[in-house]
Specification:
This protein has 164 residues and is mainly alpha-helical. It folds into 2 domains: 2-49, no CATH class; 52-163. Helices cover 63% and strands 11% of the residues. The protein contains 4 helices and 3 strands. The chain has helices at residues 2-14, 52-68, 81-111, 121-163; strands at residues 19-22, 34-40, 43-49. Strand 2 and strand 3 form a beta hairpin. Helix 2 (52-68) packs antiparallel against helix 3, helix 2 (52-68) runs parallel beside helix 4 (121-163) and helix 3 (81-111) runs antiparallel to helix 4. The chain is flat and about 65 Å long. The mean pLDDT is 84.
């Protein structure tokens, strides 16, 4: 998410009058991203900035919408119970994305507050132990993120196979 924040900063630096809508903290039917509406040659252009998990989740929902009805993107119930069950599962995955990204942001914030050995040897050693534990947690989060991404990619492949 820090890369996402940096990308948004760069884009708004180029388009300072851009209208930023951050849907990460308040997702719309599970969908999250940062949208920046800018003017290019008099036309409104929407730039969407997503993390990899946000992107694959959105692709799954877009593909599912093509199959069962685009209205599902706005919370309208699909025509079948099985499609609703799939959507309910996707909403749970969306909540997992929120939790993974929140934890990763907290880890990033903690890791950036380092103490140098010149300041305090004892505190520096404590920080090194703490950072080792953070690395272990970050690795566990990465595994969880990769598993979720893999499940979503498998689902996307299956859905795209259903469109043929």
């Amino acid at each position: 998410m820090s890369d996402q924040d940096e990308a948004v900063e760069r884009i708004t630096g180029i388009f300072p009058e851009g209208d930023v809508k951050d849907r990460r903290s308040n997702p719309n039917h599970g969908y999250r991203a940062v949208h920046i509406i800018v003017k290019v040659d008099g036309f409104s252009v929407e730039i969407q900035v997503r993390t990899d998990l946000q992107d694959i989740w959105a692709q799954v929902m877009e593909t599912l919408g093509d199959l069962v009805g685009k209205e599902i993107r706005y919370g309208v119930a699909p025509p079948s119970e099985s499609a609703q069950e799939l959507i309910d599962g996707l909403m749970l995955q969306s909540e997992s994305i929120t939790e993974i990204e929140r934890l990763q942001r907290e880890l990033d914030d903690l890791s950036s507050d380092l103490v140098s050995p010149e300041q305090d040897d004892e505190r520096y050693n404590e920080w090194q132990d703490f950072l080792g534990a953070l690395d272990t947690l970050a690795d566990a989060l990465a595994i969880r993120r990769d598993r979720l991404r893999s499940r979503l990619e498998d689902l996307l492949d299956a859905l795209e196979g259903g469109r043929d």
